[in-house]
Specification:
Blueprint: H1 8-22, E1 26-30, H2 36-51, H3 62-72, E2 81-86, E3 89-98, H4 101-107, H5 115-122, E4 129-136
Antiparallel strand pairs: 1-2, 2-3, 3-4
Length: 149
Amino acid sequence: MDVSEDSRVGRLERIVVAAKKKLPTLKIRTMQESSFEKDLKSVKSIYNRAWEKNWGFVPWSDEEFVDLASKLKILIIPQMAIIAEVSGSPVGMLISVPDYNYVLKKLNGRLFPFGVFKFLYHRKKIDSLKLMIMGVIKECRHKGIGSGK
């Protein structure tokens, strides 16, 4: 899935420019395969800090988070895993994945023997995303990082 031509990328760039007026040291970057473990720690930290005041929230342990992330790693497109940093510290994140429901419908519940090939073929035709997880730490909310305005 090529996201570079998506018209919403321009909107994201305008949001970043507006947010940088309030937070001059704001940097938006995507997760990198080469620093996956480090980025995982950032995502876990942001998630635990951003969601801590929600009713029923239970923070992720390192083991739980690494286990889940390693299973989901093959589904994630690096350009769709975005981390916001202020002065080098992670403060926000947004992770989306392709909407694999489109592919699952094509498999009719059968992955083997030929479903794997159908999966590989049809996943290239996915044209929508599902938001998996997002959050901005309390200290940086209302500064435009998580805003669509």
